[in-house]
Design goal:
single chain; two-stranded antiparallel ribbon; 13% helix; 162 residues; globular; mainly beta; 9 strands
């Protein structure tokens, strides 16, 4: 039996970082893993980012409208477990995670290939995910020599199921 056609696609692996409640004494931040990120306008002025509906990250993105799309490097495979297989509601995912903050106070991952600073314009129901259409405010390359982490690489290393 043949695979489903979409199983043949290879996706880059990202971490979506966000923050909400910056005007309060206890801002909340989170990071997750996302593979469904796509440029939707020529010149890179818009991105579509699919976030799983039950994730803590989506709650914070809805509240603040702020997010950074971090393009992960192959050497960051350990983040799949840390950021993708546990909830940030009860765990500080940024503990011992190299990161910094952009001028908006939104975290980004300093060991990633780079990040795209985004502001949410709209979102639509995408089934078990919501798709956020984002304005790209800035693109920052942090580590240009690093290889991009892909879903095929994770399957090859048996870190995710294919």
């Amino acid at each position: 039996m043949a695979k489903r056609l979409l199983k043949y696609k290879n996706y880059d692996v990202h971490s979506i970082t966000t923050v909400a409640g910056l005007s309060t004494s206890t801002p909340r931040k989170n990071a997750n893993i996302a593979t469904w990120v796509m440029q939707t306008a020529l010149g890179g002025s818009r991105l579509a980012v699919a976030l799983y509906k039950s994730d803590y990250t989506i709650e914070l993105v809805r509240e603040s409208g702020l997010l950074n799309v971090n393009l992960l490097a192959q050497e960051q495979t350990g983040l799949i477990r840390k950021l993708g297989r546990q909830s940030g509601r009860g765990v500080d995912k940024f503990s011992r995670l190299p990161h910094a903050y952009d001028e908006r106070g939104c975290p980004y991952l300093t060991e990633a290939v780079g990040y795209v600073q985004c502001r949410v314009l709209a979102n639509v129901d995408g089934g078990d995910h919501d798709v956020f259409i984002c304005e790209v405010l800035k693109q920052v390359v942090l580590n240009p020599g690093k290889a991009v982490l892909t879903n095929d690489y994770l399957k090859e290393k048996k870190l995710v199921r294919g």
